[in-house]
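Residues determine shape. We examine one folded chain.
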Amino acid sequence: MLVLLAGIFVVHIATVIMLFVSTIANVWMVGSSNLGNISTGLWLLCNQTCEQLPVSSRDEASLKAVQAFMILSIIFSVIALVMFIVQLFTLEKGKRFYLTGAIMLVCWMCILIAVSIYTARFTGKVPASTSSHHGYCFILAWICFCFSFIIGILYLVLRKK
């Protein structure tokens, strides 16, 4: 049981770190142009230098929603990690981590909403680019989506023995 708890704890920490990286780094979409590689993220457009991401007025609300839901997912993931540590030492034997699992599933839902909006509105939209593809931050966000769901379900069914 101790090995299972330690494994879940390590995966949860890895998920938090990957959420930070995928939200902060600006490599959600990567394209190539005659000036070199261009990458866009949630915040900046980077070529040789980084500048404010140019977004049309109709896509601005979508980008703000993606930014907000990714930040919320980080917050809920950190809260769930703290709750897990608190419940680990305060719950009686045989009790389940319901609150931690519920918070982690809210994190999972925030990631789902953010990545779905980004996929629907911004896929293939790299300014001044000939060809574009998803970058590692987008892939990390989907990996965090899977990990947070698995961790949330494990917390709900996990008992302290």
About this structure: The mean pLDDT is 88. The two ends are 7 Å apart (CA to CA). The chain has one domain: 1-29+57-124+137-160.
